[in-house]
Specification:
Number of strands: 10
Number of domains: 2
Number of helices: 1
Shape: rod-shaped
Order of helices and strands: EEEEEHEEEEE
Strand content: over 45%
Protein name: Phage tail protein
Helix content: under 10%
Structural class: mainly beta
Organism: Citrobacter portucalensis
Distance between the termini: 56 Å
Radius of gyration: 27 Å
Low-confidence stretches: 7-15
Length: about 110
């Protein structure tokens, strides 16, 4: 009987190619001391996947951008969602809008896309 609360080591020397695989069995996971291969191709580790793929995307908290005469044009930013556009009546160039920037999560770190 194997106590699943303690890591155990196994050695398998019965592979066709005579390779020596050493595995460490932990509750809920398997770790290998040598690179694992499936059909001759090395499999990706979780660390490699986290560093090379986006895990999640979302929008930042809303931020208000105001504009008025003489201030200049607010820079349009790629990857941002704009809503609640509001203009003061008449011929003035005065108003505001709400913007939320897109973020991506890679390797458990959030980055704003712009």
């Amino acid at each position: 009987r194997i106590d699943s609360s303690k890591p155990t080591c196994r050695q398998n020397r019965c592979c066709k190619n005579g390779s020596d695989h050493r595995f460490r069995f932990l509750p809920g996971s398997v770790e290998s001391a040598v690179p694992l291969k499936v059909s001759g191709v090395e499999v990706a580790t979780q660390a490699w996947v986290l560093q090379n793929f986006v895990q999640n995307i979302d929008l930042t908290a809303p931020a208000e951008v105001g504009f008025w005469d003489g201030r200049g044009y607010p820079r349009g930013t790629d990857g941002a969602a704009m809503y609640n556009f509001n203009m003061v009546g008449g011929s003035s160039n005065v108003g505001n809008f709400i913007v939320r920037y897109t973020r991506k999560q890679v390797n458990n770190t959030w980055y704003v896309i712009n």
